[in-house]
Design a protein that fits this description.
Length: 390
């Protein structure tokens, strides 16, 4: 039996995880739950707990069917390791999360992390087809399965996605896989104004082109990422066969785009994907505000951001970066009046208690609290991690 009185309990199987959860619950022990804890700055503060449970030792691939485009993995496997495994078969799970080198699959799903390619492939809710999670009753619950069209119990697993580990412990995740494109190219526009950048984005969206990602960087973000002289940068990630890529080259060149040299695309997108961790490493009191908006609202949402900003311009999510967390809190409170789902997504751990991380949670919060009570009536699990509201 594992020693539950150590600083960190590391179950090695879903069964061990369920046992640890049940042990803590019967003794009313509060729990801090995570994987590699790479995203401590994300969400609410980690409240003091009686014990810590890490799924980092649960790293097995439980089932992989390359021909069926499905895979089942334990929560502790790292995104980086899984990406390398799938690349051998020219397959992928295109979530592109921040902290990809260290983040575990369980942590990525619990925080609902995504990156540039969410425009074409969606988020975890679009790629997860099944899940196994451990409850505080010490039980393992199955939801969904290994068949892409199987929706039995799928809504239960969707509750876990984005819950920040406040409901149960994710043990196993089943994904549908995406074949890698035979050819990929990246194109970059530079504009002197936000209006010009948004107009180009609109032209792409209304064209027959269907790129994987359309990201927009304001001049401050472009300078921070050392991409070029200050300008509004619109980046387009395209994939397909040779004929499709040739069409992208013709049509985007006609709009004024330049192709990133072959061999430099990966580093270019890595700079965008890792912008958040690099920014926070460089600014001790730094914070990030996430502003969800519609495609039509993107220009208005980006315009007032005073510092660096990056937008998933094809899906409508803006990220505003602040050197000082207090400024981020003020901006979030003001912005939430117009965009109600605004949150301070990342902030220093020692400042979160004094910040309103989720200024306008809306009526859904009461439903979420009822769900929390169903899963965790004693309030033991990851207290406060859902932006201090749950």
């Amino acid at each position: 039996m594992p020693d539950y009185f150590t600083d960190v309990v590391e179950p090695r199987s879903p069964e061990d995880l369920a046992e640890a959860m049940g042990w803590a619950s019967t003794r009313q022990q509060t729990i801090e739950l995570g994987g590699h804890f790479s995203k401590r700055l994300m969400g609410g503060p980690a409240a003091a707990a009686n014990m810590t449970i890490s799924t980092a030792a649960m790293r097995r691939v439980r089932q992989y069917e390359p021909r069926d485009l499905t895979i089942s993995v334990e929560a502790g496997i790292s995104y980086c390791e899984l990406r390398s495994l799938l690349a051998v078969h020219h397959q992928m799970i295109p979530l592109d999360p921040p902290y990809a080198d260290t983040a575990t699959i369980g942590g990525i799903i619990a925080c609902n992390c995504s990156g540039p390619r969410r425009r074409l492939y969606g988020t975890a809710r679009d790629l997860v087809i099944g899940m196994q999670f451990a409850t505080l009753e010490g039980k393992l619950v199955e939801s969904g399965g290994m068949v892409v069209k199987n929706v039995a119990g799928l809504d239960m697993s969707k509750l876990m996605i984005g819950s920040f580990g406040t409901l149960a412990a994710i043990a196993v995740v089943n994904f549908k896989l995406i074949p890698q494109s035979p050819c990929e190219r990246t194109f970059r526009f530079s504009f002197g104004s936000l209006d010009e950048a948004v107009a180009a984005r609109d032209a792409i969206l209304t064209s027959p082109l269907d790129p994987a990602a359309i990201d927009l960087l304001n001049p401050a973000a472009a300078a921070t990422a050392k991409m070029e002289k200050p300008a509004w940068v619109l980046a387009v990630w395209a994939g397909g066969n040779a004929a499709a890529i040739a069409r992208y080259e013709r049509e985007l060149a006609a709009m004024g785009a330049q192709a990133i040299p072959v061999g430099e695309e990966s580093a270019f997108w890595r700079a965008i994907q890792d912008f958040t961790p690099r920014y926070l490493d460089a600014h001790e009191d730094g914070a990030v505000v996430r502003v969800p908006c519609t495609l039509k609202e993107l220009r208005a949402a980006m315009q007032p951001i005073p510092g660096s900003a990056i937008a998933r311009a094809g899906s409508g999510v803006c990220y505003a970066y602040f050197e000082h967390s207090g400024d981020a809190a003020v901006f979030a409170a003001e912005t939430a009046r117009e965009y109600s789902e605004t949150v301070v997504e990342f902030a220093p751990e020692n400042r979160k208690e004094e910040m309103d991380l989720w200024p306008a949670p809306g009526q859904d919060l009461e439903i979420m609290r009822r769900i929390k009570h169903m899963f965790d009536p004693q309030q033991l699990l990851n207290r406060g991690r859902l932006y201090r509201r749950i």
